[in-house]
Sequence to fold (126 residues):
Amino acid sequence: MKTYQVDVAKDEGWWIMHARITRTIIYSQAKRIDDIEFMIRDAIAGALDVNPDSFAIELDFDLDPDVLAQVSRAREASLEAAEVQERASRESRAAVQALRKEGLTLKEAGYFLGVTPQRVAQLLNS
Fold:
């Protein structure tokens, strides 16, 4: 599948996009960031007379490199947090099962885990 590089910049409240297709540059614009992909796909597909889903696009936003680096670090931290949260959930479920095998009530298990009896019940049922 062919991939087209699309340069994207913000200018006076509009997102301006351009993509080089062979020797032609395709331009488009969008008011909302959510519309960028649709608008540039539509423009490229129209210029090439192909289906908009027949190619891939790669958006290259013209933002300060320090800002992009900060965004990258934030996304990485979010992924790490999700992994840690998943591990904590697995460990909590295992701990609840072990505590219940010891004969503890939901309230007592919650005491050891620092959660409510309702959360202990949720962990048991998940």
The chain has two domains: 3-62, 75-125. The two ends are 41 Å apart (CA to CA). Residues 75-125 form one domain.
